Amino acid sequence: MTPVRRGKGVIVTERSGIGATPAVAAGPRLRRRELLARAAQLGLVVPAAGYLAGCGGGGSETGGGSTAEPIKGTGVVLNYAGWMGKNTVKEFEAKYPGAGIKQISEGSISSGAVVPAIKANLSTYDAALGDQSVVGQAMAADVLQPYDWSNIPNIANVDERFRKAYSHGVPSDYGKTGIAYRKDLVSDTITSWADLWRLAPKYSGKIVFIDLDRDCIGSALKYKGHSANSTSESELNDALDALLEIKPHLEAIKAYDIGAGLVKGNTWIAMDWDYDTALAQQSDPNIEWVLPEEGAAAYLEGFFAVKDTPQLAVLEAFFNFFLEPKQYVDFVNTTGTAFVSAKATPYIKKSISQNKALIVDPATLANVEFEGYLGEATALYAKIWDQFKSA
Question: pTM of the full predicted structure?
Answer without folding.
Answer: 0.77
